[in-house]
Amino acid sequence: MALIDVEGLHFAYGATVVLEDLDLQIRAGELVAMLGPNGAGKTTLVENLLGTLVPDRGTVRVCGINPRRAGARFWPKVGFMSQHWSDHSKWRVMEQLEWIRACYDTQGGPTRDPAQILDALELSDKAQAPLGKLSGGQRRRVDFAAALLSRPELLILDEPTTGLDPVAKAKIHDLVADCQDGGTTVLLTTHDLAEAEKISSRIVILAGGGFLADGTAHELRRRLARESEITWREAEETFVHSTSEVESFVARLDLSTIRDLTITRPSLEDAYLELVSQAEGAQVEPPSPELRRATEVDAEGRAVRGRSASDEDVSASERSAR
């Protein structure tokens, strides 16, 4: 079952098209990370999913319901963490969470104990602190706590770890994973590629009004035409070789005579930058060859010493000087 089902979604701010005939299906139990550059439309898509914006055309279904026509019993099904907040800075943390919990209680559904959530987020000592006195990272954790109160079927997290230190970020990651393990479906937007690769089961990349890619981090890396780079030292020389057949190439090397073997594969960041650059009509520049030792490899996998690009440039300049 698709908890999020978007078909042909088109949305524009005046003459500026943000989302163009967008399709997205997220099945129950998935943890999907949505990446994209600033202005790509990630938050606009989230607001369409929550019914706070009206699409120009297309259909949006969340938990089987059009959010624009959803009744009161729909909202406990969806936990939402926004990038921004607009509540009263003098409210205390526990007061805010208890007030939100009371709103959910009127719908008759199960709710979580705010004290237990604060404890899990290591915020118990801030329960009586005014919201306006919290640090940015503490405030983000309170927002996350609020999103969990209704035991939602679907969590929508808009850049949930922005401003968090590594320890707090890891705690959020653990709790998100626990939610998924408990059957909650999660959609999060992020600019943190490492975060997306670490916790998501699926990644979608939004740019240019549509999705450029949809798959696991491994699948997105495989879409790159770029080869893996293998470096090693033999005697006193450093060799570099690029190939898409890493395992077969390494098997042909004489490992008894080499050292410092390193394999560098295309990363998720490489895939992301190349896809977004293509969507924006830009050329992706290959890594600079300067100071890298050029090599040739024969059919048996033996390395033949070559000259570095910088050597060739120097030689050319010396010849012209003569």
Structure commentary:
- By secondary structure, the protein is α/β, with parallel strands linked by helices.
- Helices cover about 30% and strands about 25% of the residues.
- The protein contains ten helices and 14 strands.
- The strands form four sheets. Strands 5-6-7-3-8-9 form a six-stranded mixed sheet, with helices on both faces. The chain has a three-stranded antiparallel sheet with strand order 2-1-4, covered by helices on one side.
- The longest helix has 16 residues, at about 165-180.
- It is globular.
- It starts with a strand and ends with a helix.
- The model is unreliable at about 280-320 (pLDDT under 50).
Counted by DSSP, the helix tally is 10
Query: How far is the N terminus from the C terminus?
Result: 75 Å
Rg estimate, integer Å? 25 Å
Kindly report the average pLDDT value: 83
**Helix percentage:** 25-40%
Helix/strand/pairing class, anyone? alpha/beta
Number of strands: 14
The shape, in one word, is globular
Major sheet: arrangement of strands: 5-6-7-3-8-9
Largest sheet geometry? 6 strands, mixed
Q: What is the helix/strand order?
A: EEEHEEHHHEHEHEEHEEHEHEEH
Given as residue ranges, the uncertain stretches (5+ residues, pLDDT < 50) are 282-322
Strand content: 25-35%
Present the secondary structure layout.
Blueprint: E1 2-13, E2 16-27, E3 31-35, H1 42-50, E4 57-62, E5 78-81, H2 93-105, H3 114-120, H4 136-148, E6 154-158, H5 166-181, E7 185-189, H6 193-199, E8 202-207, E9 210-215, H7 217-222, E10 228-234, E11 237-243, H8 246-252, E12 258-264, H9 268-279, E13 295-297, E14 303-305, H10 309-321
